[in-house]
């Protein structure tokens, strides 16, 4: 009986091509809008969380806004490592400069920092070495360039021992950093140079005071302890004024970002669900338009001896087949669209998630089946003579 | 054998009560060719629908081959219609999306008869109505007479004990109508029970026995 019903359902799909096509179209549009939209948001979320995760989740960033005429010294920052939960600290300051090598001249971002910056930021070297604390103590004029800077200024990266001029001061290149691979696709085009904190204060004349530094905890679990201790220390240090400084936790940023992304996902998912529903209503319309035809057909089938179950099974299979085929086409088209978006737009890396695909399938198969079977259910419930006589 | 006993069927439309069947009693033996004649609205179709188990009366009893029809469930009635009764409707009632052959095959599909056997019997039925050449045509591609012949083939493909025809010639010209009537005579000669509804005296006169119906009341003529 099932086999017969499958065959009848197939025949019915083939002989009602327009109806089947329009139903599938409703499915396809609904599934596509849901899957594609959510995939794009997923991709955006992933690239944002990835880039935040790159910073490291066990890092605090501290900046001093008001030093109360008692600025923090590098030694004080270094002494923070005496707290048990604090693993490392790195003072840093930034500045801009013009970098020159032979005839090349480019503007460059300077980072004045200490040796531990390398580990805190999770950098990696292409050549040479990073800054050492000895460089900082004696404020040697040495510089580590990022890959972009090396390539722009020297045309290559094997430049350890060469000299670069930063705002007219001659620095010896001691290392070249490997370019961080960026998840968003557009790797930083900026030129960067890392020099000893003390060297930067010397050439910019800004003094040795620290106004920003990084702190890392031993592990993610001790983050809260570190944050509390650092905050307490700064609170006491800066005359009980909590507005004088700010402590930013990278995992807080991550949480905020991912909650924003979640909201986005729900919103777009909502929009997509509405289009799925609209697709469903389209399907319902098509079915209701053909209700006269369906009812008469069922009347005839019942008159010549079809049982209610057999009829319903036929229509159920028909509705399921149409919905599933529509769904599959929708998913294939979604995958193609996602692929197309990814390869056309560099900054987007959408990724289809199984969850969304399953939700889309579940929802549209449900709608397609319910709306597909409903008119048949009504008709099969009527006495055959009424179904035969049915007119709208 | 068909035994109707005091069947009543009323339709209430607003304040009006229409007695479509008014204490109708009737007995039809196996192998009879009976015509039922009456003016429009007299209750002919209502009677046929009850006899054909497409509809049930409000009152009275109906025994088909001794089975009390009122006591059967929907699915059991479907089975009885499928196995015992062949219908020929005035408006053919063919499935427009199926070919002549598939239409004729349908009752056999519901009997779960194997494919080979189905094909053999469909061809046989097509031969009976001389439509083999048109077997792949859809109803829309056939003339009225041809459609009615497909419907007759569908009615007889299950070898039913009873063929019910509601104005089978009503939508056809007289020549085509005669051809259809010839077909019914042949079926009768082969031993089928035939109940034919008409409002045409000439058609009714061709039957062995003529029954009149007027305002839902049945008289043997
Ligand atoms: N579904 C219905 N609802 C209301 N009244 C009905 C219904 N079916 C039939 N009737 C009424 O019952 C009466 C008998 O109808 P029926 O169809 O049996 O007549 P008939 O003899 O077949 O007429 P015709 O020759 O025109 O086909 C009519 O008066 C009709 O109005
Ligand atoms: Mg009638």
Plain-language structure description:
The complex is a heterodimer of chains A (392) and B (221). Chain A has 392 residues and is an alpha+beta fold. Chain A has 2 domains: 2-51 and 256-389, no CATH class; 67-240, no CATH class. Chain A contains 13 helices and 10 strands. In chain A, strand 6 (163-166) and strand 7 (169-177) form a beta hairpin. The longest helix of chain A has 40 residues, at 250-289. Residues 182-186 of chain A have low confidence and may be disordered. With 221 residues, chain B is of the alpha/beta class. Chain B has a single domain (2-220), classed as P-loop containing nucleotide triphosphate hydrolases (Rossmann fold, 3-Layer(aba) Sandwich), CATH 3.40.50. Helices cover 35% and strands 29% of the residues of chain B. In chain B, strands 6-7-8-3-9-10 form a 6-stranded mixed sheet, with helices on both faces. In chain B, strand 1 (2-13) and strand 2 form a beta hairpin. In chain B, helix 3 crosses helix 4 (115-128), helix 3 (100-110) packs parallel to helix 5 (144-156) and helix 4 (115-128) packs across helix 5. The structure holds adenosine-5'-triphosphate (ATP) and magnesium ion.
Strand content of chain B: 25-35%
* Helical segment count of chain A: 13
Instruction: Give me the count of strands of chain A.
Output: 10
CATH fold call of chain B: Rossmann fold
Q: Into which percentage range does the β-strand content of chain A fall?
A: 15-25%
- Unreliable spans of chain B: none
Number of helices of chain B: 7
Name the CATH homologous superfamily of chain B: P-loop containing nucleotide triphosphate hydrolases
How many domains is the backbone of chain B divided into? 1
């Amino acid at each position: 009986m099932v086999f017969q019903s499958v065959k009848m359902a197939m025949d019915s799909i083939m002989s009602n091509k327009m109806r089947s096509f329009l139903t599938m179209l409703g499915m396809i549009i609904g599934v596509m809008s849901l899957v594609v939209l959510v995939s794009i948001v997923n991709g955006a979320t992933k690239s944002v969380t990835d880039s935040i995760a790159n910073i490291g989740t066990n890092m605090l960033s501290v900046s001093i806004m008001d030093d109360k005429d008692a600025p923090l010294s590098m030694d004080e920052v270094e002494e923070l490592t005496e707290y048990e939960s604090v693993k490392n600290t790195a003072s840093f300051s930034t500045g801009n400069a013009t970098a020159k090598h032979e005839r090349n001249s480019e503007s460059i971002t300077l980072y004045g920092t200490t040796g531990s910056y390398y580990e805190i930021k999770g950098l990696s070297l292409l050549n040479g070495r990073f800054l050492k604390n000895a460089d900082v103590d004696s404020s040697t004029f040495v510089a580590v360039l990022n890959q972009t800077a090396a390539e722009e200024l020297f045309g290559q990266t094997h430049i350890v021992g060469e000299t670069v001029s930063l705002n007219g001061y001659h620095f010896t290149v001691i290392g070249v950093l490997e370019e961080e691979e960026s998840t968003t696709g557009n790797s930083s085009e900026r030129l960067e140079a890392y020099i000893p904190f003390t060297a930067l204060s010397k050439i910019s004349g800004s003094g040795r005071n620290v106004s920003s530094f990084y702190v890392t905890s031993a592990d993610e679990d001790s983050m809260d302890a570190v944050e509390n201790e650092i905050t307490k220390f700064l609170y006491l240090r800066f005359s009980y004024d909590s507005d004088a400084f700010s402590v930013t936790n990278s995992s807080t940023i991550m949480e905020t970002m991912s909650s924003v992304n979640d909201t986005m996902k729900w919103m777009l998912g909502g929009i997509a669900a509405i289009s799925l529903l609209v697709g469903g209503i389209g399907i319902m319309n098509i079915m209701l338009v053909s209700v006269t035809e369906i009812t008469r057909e069922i009347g005839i089938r019942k008159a010549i001896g079809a049982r209610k179950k057999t009829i319903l099974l036929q229509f159920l299979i028909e509705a399921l087949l149409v919905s599933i085929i529509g769904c599959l086409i929708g998913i294939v088209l979604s995958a193609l669209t996602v692929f197309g978006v990814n390869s056309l737009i560099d900054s987007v890396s959408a990724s289809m998630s199984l969850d969304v695909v399953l939700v889309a399938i579940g929802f549209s198969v449900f709608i397609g089946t319910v709306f597909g079977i409903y008119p048949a259910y009504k008709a099969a419930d009527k006495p055959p003579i009424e179904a035969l006589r049915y007119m709208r | 054998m068909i035994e109707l006993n005091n069947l009543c069927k009323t339709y209430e439309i607003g304040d009006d009560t229409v007695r479509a069947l008014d204490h109708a009693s009737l007995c039809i033996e196996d192998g009879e060719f009976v015509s039922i004649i009456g003016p429009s609205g007299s209750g002919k179709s209502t009677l046929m629908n009850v006899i054909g188990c497409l509809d049930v009366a409000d009152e009275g009893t109906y025994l088909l081959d001794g089975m009390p029809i009122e006591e059967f469930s929907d699915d059991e009635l479907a089975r009885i219609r499928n196995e015992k009764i062949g219908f020929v409707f005035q408006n053919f009632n063919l499935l427009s999306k199926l070919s002549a052959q598939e239409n004729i095959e349908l009752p056999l599909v519901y009997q779960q008869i194997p494919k080979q056997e189905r094909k053999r019997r469909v061809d046989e039925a097509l031969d009976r109505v001389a439509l083999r050449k048109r077997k792949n045509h859809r109803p829309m591609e056939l003339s009225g007479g041809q459609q009615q012949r497909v419907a007759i083939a569908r009615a007889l493909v299950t070898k039913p004990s009873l063929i019910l025809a509601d104005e089978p010639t009503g939508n056809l010209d007289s020549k085509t109508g005669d051809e259809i009537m010839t077909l019914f005579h042949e079926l009768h000669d082969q031993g089928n029970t035939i109940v034919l509804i008409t409002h045409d005296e000439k058609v009714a006169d061709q039957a062995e026995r003529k029954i009149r119906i007027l305002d839902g009341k049945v008289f043997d003529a």
